[in-house]
């Protein structure tokens, strides 16, 4: 097949960490154009990649005939407008999470992409952790039995440092909720199905970060009821001092069902803890080798740190779906479903009410 040409809009941290190395592993795939609003950031990316076509205006990039697909990695507030422009020009789109600031915008992105017949993908990167994929397989196979409880806990130590656009509601939408809990809401959907109703609480315990106002949540908790009747408890915090950050900190999911329990932690990329009903307790369960990479991915799981490199399979999924004209996993619809839960969590936190998802605003 002819080479697939990708443009990247937003050349900050996640583009350097995930998108560029992921795309570099995809055969016959080239990054041909880069966009960043900051000339210095754009220049750094240009020097690093050797990509010749650059612009500080995404409008100039997404309309190009030599661009087939666009990756959006800007502050959250910009995702819908850039996605709409790319879709309007017939480009396939991989957009960072959270897809938008409101579910209505996220759903509009999904509908527009479907109507245009382009591939669309939400960067729920932690779906690509081998242990999470294996857990999903076990749950779908019936090893859990009837799901009773879903529990996720994400605890990091971000202290009071400056988070830039991430600490401004108008640019980020929410804080910990959209930044971290969105992934764990997506886990919940993939493992237990849709959430029917929820009550949530958020806290801003550090209102000044790096000398600048922070009006986003540092901590969030959701108590949820799934459509299946299962219960959910989801918590995420930036203020777990001493817990470290990223994959060195706690990112744990426990799921209990009629037949057993499973525990997933991102830091154990190829191992779960598992127990069966009436058994002696949790024991390690190794993830089989065939789950160490996403199906078809050319990545060598022995190359580099597997806690970093699993993320590269995301680019493979996007590229492979484009080539084979099949839906991406996870799609914009998955991103919109998580966004509806986030909207309901914000509404619940503000009104101190349970929110019924089928009746939630947006
Ligand atoms: N999937 C994941 O695991 C994961 C991890 C980190 C970040 N993210 C998401 O990725 C996105 C970017 O996060 P980041 O950490 O890379 O942020 P960042 O601040 O490091 O990078 C964002 C870049 O976008 C640029 N930008 C701002 N306005 C722009 C515009 N109008 N046009 C083009 N570029 C513009 C900025 O100059 C900056 O370089 C966010 O949506 C974030 O939630 C996802």
Please sum up the structure shown.
By secondary structure, the protein is of the alpha/beta class. The chain is built from 11 helices and 17 strands. It folds into 2 domains: 4-125, 3-Layer(aba) Sandwich (Rossmann fold), CATH 3.40.50.720; 126-306 and 339-351, Dihydrodipicolinate Reductase, domain 2 (2-Layer Sandwich).
Oligomer: single chain
The share of residues in extended strands comes to 15-25%
Total number of helical segments?
11
Spatial order of the strands in the main sheet? 16-15-14-13-7-12-11-8-17
Shape: globular
Q: Kindly state the number of beta strands.
A: 17
Class based on secondary structure composition and strand pairing: alpha/beta
Topology readout:
Blueprint: E1 4-9, H1 13-24, E2 29-35, H2 39-49, E3 53-55, H3 58-62, E4 69-72, H4 79-88, E5 92-95, H5 103-116, E6 120-122, H6 130-141, E7 147-155, H7 169-172, H8 176-192, E8 195-203, E9 208-209, E10 212-213, E11 219-226, E12 231-237, E13 250-257, E14 260-265, E15 271-276, E16 283-286, H9 306-309, H10 313-324, H11 332-351, E17 355-356
Parallel strand pairs: 1-2, 1-4, 2-3, 4-5, 5-6, 7-12
Antiparallel strand pairs: 7-13, 8-11, 8-17, 9-10, 11-12, 13-14, 14-15, 15-16
Nicotinamide-adenine-dinucleotide is lined by residues 9-14, 35-38, 41, 58, 73-76, 78, 96-97, 123, 125, 164, 179.
């Amino acid at each position: 097949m002819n080479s697939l040409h990708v443009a990247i809009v937003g050349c900050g941290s996640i583009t350097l960490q995930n998108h560029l190395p992921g795309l570099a592993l995809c055969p016959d795939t080239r990054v041909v154009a880069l966009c960043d609003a900051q000339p210095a950031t754009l220049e750094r990316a240009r020097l690093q990649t050797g990509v010749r076509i650059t612009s500080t205006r995404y409008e100039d990039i997404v309309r190009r005939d030599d661009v087939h697909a666009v990756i959006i990695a800007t502050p959250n507030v910009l995702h819908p407008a850039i996605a709409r422009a790319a879709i309007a020009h017939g480009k396939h789109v991989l957009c960072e999470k959270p897809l938008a600031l409101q579910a209505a915008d996220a759903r509009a992105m999904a509908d527009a992409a479907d109507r245009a017949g382009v591939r669309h993908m939400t960067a729920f990167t932690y779906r690509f952790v081998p242990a999470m994929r294996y857990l999903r397989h076990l749950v779908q196979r019936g090893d859990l039995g009837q799901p009773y409880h879903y529990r996720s806990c994400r605890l990091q130590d971000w202290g009071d440092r400056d988070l830039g656009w991430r600490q401004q509601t108008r640019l980020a939408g929410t804080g910990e909720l959209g930044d971290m809990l969105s992934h764990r809401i997506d886990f919940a959907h993939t493992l237990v199905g849709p959430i029917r109703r929820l009550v949530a609480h958020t806290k801003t315990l550090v209102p000044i970060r790096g000398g600048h106002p922070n009006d986003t949540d540092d901590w969030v908790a959701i108590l949820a009821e799934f459509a299946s009747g299962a219960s959910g408890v989801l918590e995420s915090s930036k203020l777990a001092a001493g817990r470290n950050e990223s994959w060195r900190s706690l990112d744990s999911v426990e799921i209990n069902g009629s037949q057993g329990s499973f525990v997933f932690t991102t830091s154990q990329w190829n191992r779960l803890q598992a127990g069966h009903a009436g058994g002696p307790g949790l024991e390690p369960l190794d993830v089989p080798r065939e789950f160490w990479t996403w199906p078809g991915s050319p990545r060598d799981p022995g190359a580099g740190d597997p806690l970093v490199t699993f993320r590269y399979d995301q680019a493979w999924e996007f590229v492979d779906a484009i080539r084979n004209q099949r839906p991406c996993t996870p799609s914009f619809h998955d991103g919109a479903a998580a966004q509806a839960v986030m909207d309901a969590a914000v509404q619940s936190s503000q009104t101190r009410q349970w929110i019924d998802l089928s009746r939630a605003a947006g």
